Here is the input.
Amino acid sequence: MLIGANNIGKTSIFEAIHLWKMCYDLNLKKDKSGFYANSHNLPFRDMEFIRVYNDMDLFPVGCAKKDATMHITLDIEYQEITYSLGFSISKVTTIDNAYLQVEYINATEFKNFETMVASLGKKLDTFLTVNESRPVANIIVKEPYMYKAQVMDKIAKGKGYEVLRNKLRENTADVELHINNVLQSSYHITEVDRDNKQYISMQVDGKNILSFGSGFLQLAEIFSSVEYLGSEIGILLIDEPDSHLHLKIQKRLIDEFRTFNNMQLFIITHNDRFLECVSENEILFLDDTTKANGTITSLSAGCKGIVMENLGGCLRQLERLRFASRLILVEGTGDLDFFSNICPKYETWANVSAPGNVFVKMDGIDTLNGKLISYARALKGIIPSTCEWLIIRDTDCVPLNRKTAAGNDDKKNVDTSNAPISVVFQEGYGIESTFLSDPNKFARLITNYYELDVAEEGNVSTEISRLTSVFACNVKDITNSLHTNWKKHFERQIKARSGRVYNDLKPEDVLTLITPTTIQYIMTKDIMNIFLQNLHSFISSNYPMIAKPALTSQSIFSFYYSWLTGLNDMFDAHKLLLAQIYS
Here is the structure.
């Protein structure tokens, strides 16, 4: 998948492949069995379909005529052997718009490729094909019968829709199968009025193909070209195949594409739903940075989410990123929901606003440093160079005395164009455990939830204090189930993380710093649920008239939002985060 902003150069990549194929075809001998020993030059008149008005349009802006040279190489891997077929293309300095000089970069590579194709009993022109399908809204009304060479020429120039009927009549059953697989239907394509030797007439289920919608026609155009070419290996260039297709059909289209085991597909899309169907290593992201570096690579692990949410189709979010003054990265959906609910309240009560704040979720931080490096690359050229970065992460199993070192590891080598980057830790294992960072306010919250009299808050506070002491003791006892529960999370964290903080980290490195006042730092979601259930049992035993269900690490947030009446109710841990977000 090729993705990126408009006018960034996605279509230019397609045109570069076309230019390479023009050089390839131009240098085939007449019998198509080999390449000319001396390369042939490329007439400029043949290049109109790749958007060049003058021959200098092919070269960088400001380039002098004497320096106007480019290299285009296509690496072809066949039967585990790679053939690097490259051309050097340069402008003729003495005359404009007449022809371009073409030379082999390495003639030996072409000879090796030629020998391999001949050993298979194939011809070079049909062994490798390039086909482009562009968004198609209609087809021509009258399509004449054409010879195969004429059809192939149309396909090569990205005008396959002009010869759709010619292609269909040759491979009707195969095209029908592909279309029906994608649309989950049973269309039947037939050629009628065969005695008319001038124009082809095709019907689909008894209706003229001309009357069918853009989605059907685009599928017919793509699959008819693939089947018509029938090459040993092929390159299929598809521009926005999702433009006329319903969301439900798009995944089936990708699945059908995957059945072409002899095809290399390049697909341009702006659709985030379409990206859901592919993995990160199948997505090529083109931006100003990658253009400047001259290399486009697939997305790094963990980077797909940010591209889908912010670049794939959500234009409003993309515009916000363009004007962001602070980029706030949080771990996941739970953190994003928390700030979505708490920020409007804080803005009202603290009388602050920050329209330049943009929140983005990272979907976990097992490889946080790698993700941040990928995000910095993906967002460069989109967010302003002055945009500050604020990463809000869970403490997880980072020992309290190593948080600074862990934060420095997280942001190491992350290129934010000299804009400030900060890593802030939750005051707890995760956002849900921050409620235990302030036992007094937590007691007030619990008292209110169970609708107890204010006078009972002292009893609730005493029980919370008792439980924190018990939990702080039990989590260090290797024979206790609480320790076993916590250690399971610890081992998962250590296995998934990298960095000097986690090197040779032992459970005791974390647990020796846990006391009743720091108990929140071992409160995973599971352990927080156990704590809340124990607290519920105490209240049920002492206040039997109470019929409230036990709170959970999830439901506590909903009650917290409804309970808040002002800044004084907010937990200090939350106000500290918000103060940094709105500073």
About this structure: The two ends are 39 Å apart (CA to CA).
